[in-house]
Design a protein that fits this description.
This protein has 370 residues and is of the alpha+beta class. The chain folds into three domains: 53 residues, no CATH class; 167 residues, Rossmann fold; 131 residues, no CATH class. Helix content is 24%, strand content 25%. It has eleven helices and 16 strands. The strands form three sheets. It has a six-stranded mixed β-sheet with strand order 3-2-1-4-6-5, sandwiched between helices. The chain has a five-stranded antiparallel β-sheet with strand order 7-10-14-13-16, with no helix packed on it. It has a five-stranded antiparallel β-sheet with strand order 11-8-9-15-12. Strand 2, helix 5 and strand 3 form a beta-alpha-beta unit. 39% of the residues are buried.
Amino acid sequence: MEEDLLQCEGCGIELQTDDPSRLGYVPEQALLKVPVICQRCYRIKHYNEISSVTPNQDDFLKMLSHVGETNSLVIHIVDLFDFEGSLISGLQRFVGNNPILLVVNKMDLLPKVTNWNRILNWIRKQAKESGLKVVDVVLCSAKKNIGFDRLLEKLGEYRKGRDVYVVGATNAGKSTLINRLIRDYSDLESELTTSQYPGTTLDLVRIPLDDGKSIIDTPGIVYSYRLTELVPKPVLPVLLPDKTIKPAVYQLNEKQTLFIGGFARFDFAKGPRQSFTCFFSNSLPVHRTKLERADELYNNHRGELLKPPTKEQLEQIPPLAKHPVSIRKGQQSDVLISGLGWIKINSPEGAELVIHAPKGVKIVVRDSLI
């Protein structure tokens, strides 16, 4: 294929007709179609099927490295369900002096009674502690079209005639949000490829605006410490909630254990009787048992009573590793298992916990979100 190069209108990768095993492959006859999309995007769009061909994290970071040399507005999209897991650490280093508008997606997943002012204050505090200076925060749901008008208003307020770079980790909802912009505010007819699978956008995709500037969609950064990156792809629809989470409250005595499917285990090792609230996908069953029986139960029943995942899928996931956690007296905390959800510790009495999660998954103790 000659060097002057078509790009896939789904993911932005440079198209090629030579090697089906490489990114950007398109059969020659498909070049005549409009829009032209690579075989990988075609399979995602029509069959919800993911290709094993994905770019690595170094390539992602190289693509972001030039943003600081531009005069742009940067929109950082974060997943409210996995805030710490989807925040791009060191983003300030890449963007230089460009302003950052923090867009927090998936607000529709939180329970209806949520105090949104409290959530906004919590987000600002967490961002600041992570070294991120943001000009503003917008809460939204790309899927439910909530908060979109406010995002457009803030976009107009802070853009000041500049290009807009949209950055975020995989599965934070970038492509869904940008498709709304394409549909409503751009002449571009095609939509980006959106999928439940990480790494859908593979290159910079420029969306022209009426004033000659562009919205630039960047590839999602893949963080290997999120459970969603470590599980087999068919498990993702179970892990990722698609509707409002129904929190489940458990009154536990010390030396009791909760299993979250077969993905993780929560041991209440020491402390007075107290309540723990689970915020996980409604598709994930929580199983309670005594701590003294937990090892035996997991060894004998993982992939059966304790599922998902299935036994076959468990073989593709790293083994569980222990994380001791101390909650101080009077500390209102969440324990986040990145990519899975979190458990809120409701008692002011303090607790000694042990979290078991697949090796490499990030565990975060934070001030309670709700």
